[in-house]
Amino acid sequence: MNKILNRGIEVINQYRGWKTNEKIVVFESDDWGAIRTSSNEVLEELKKNGVAIDRCHYMLNDALETNQDLESLFNVLVKYKDVEGNRPQFTFNTIMANPDFQKIKESDFSTYYYKPFTDTYRPFSSENIINYWYKGISEGVMYPQFHGREHVNIKRWLTDLKNKRKDTLIGFNHEMFAISGHIVPEKRGSYLAVFDEIGHDAKLIEQIISEGLQIFEDTFEFSPKTFIAPNYVWGTMVEEVSKRYGIQSMQGGSSQILPSIQEKKQGVVKNYLGKKSKSGIGYLIRNVLFEPSSDLNKDWVNSALKQIEVSFSNNRPAIIDTHRVNYIGSLNPKNRERGLELLNDLIRRILTKWPDVKFSNSEKLAGKIYNS
């Protein structure tokens, strides 16, 4: 009965809320700035220790972006312009910091330390990569927004490190934390869902959000107006704190996952485009999925075009969910090559099918919806 009820709510939400006659396309892309898999060598070590790495495309392909990753993505985006002369612009939902593994180790896993994502590039990635970010912004092909201070559930991760959980320690020794919870030998909660199980810890929530936003402003010299909570998990307190610090809208899907309390089952809230929370937060609802890395056999371009067509026929903007993993090639160059080839085809066909389309970013769209 609950499944039938939830499906009914989703159908209703498709037809309520904000509408437009404009054909607007927004690309929302998460995880930029976050570390993930540090090398193919650690993948082999994890595999030998019972971690089913082949069951997670993030583990196999996702890593901190390099100069080549950004340059290759931007080279696709700069080729196209919409009816108003705007290029397709990725909303770069950015993680602003990563764990400081050395300091955490020195504390014997008792205290969490972090460093800005720009400092993380030095040992892992390419030199002067932040200049590519600034270039992408100036060329109108990317626009940073807030994805969090870090992409790690601090309490859960440190607890397992203190308890000497084997797969977690292997990852830590290779300066990675994001080993997917569904592929490890012993069941555990996600290390990636930052706000899970801390939904009522007001002090920690405020610290995470305020410090992350400060790094954002120091890095990009402007304040973000939208926020996508890691793993789509957040509660009322996250919204209230975010609103106080200038966030106007939460990105996400139609289902908002509420933080769990101990072992209780997580709840879900249904949102729709145009809805506002009691705290005044608006919602941007992703309605097109374009994740080529997750399924090598699916026709992602035609699938996305069909979803865009449904959005436009219902007078909705097309908000495309497409994570960083699809465009990363340091672990697997073919992954980046395929992702960019399909992205190129998708944009080309969007402009052919809908020549009056308008490309936008999450902040601009949220402003149009909630400030009009």
User: Could you list the spans in which at least 5 consecutive residues all have pLDDT below 50?
Assistant: 1-12
Residues in β-strands, percent:
5-15%
- CATH topology descriptor: TIM Barrel
Sketch the topology as an H/E string, one letter per element: HEHHHEEHEHHEHHHEHEEEEEHEHEH
Quaternary structure: single chain
The CATH architecture classification is Alpha-Beta Barrel
Distance between the termini: 39 Å
CATH class reads Alpha Beta
Give the class from helix and strand content and strand pairing. Answer: alpha/beta
User: Quick one: how many beta strands?
Assistant: 13
State the helical fraction.
40-55%
Gyration radius, rounded: 20 Å
Number of domains: 1
Shape: globular
CATH superfamily membership: Glycoside hydrolase/deacetylase
* Separate helix tally: 14
Mean pLDDT: 93
The largest sheet is:
6 strands, parallel
Question: Can you put this structure into words, describing what you see?
Answer:
Helices cover 40% and strands 14% of the residues. Helix 10 (202-220) packs across helix 11 (236-244). Residues 1-12 have low confidence and may be disordered. It is of the alpha/beta class and 372 residues long. The two termini are 39 Å apart. It has one domain (2-370): TIM Barrel, CATH 3.20.20.
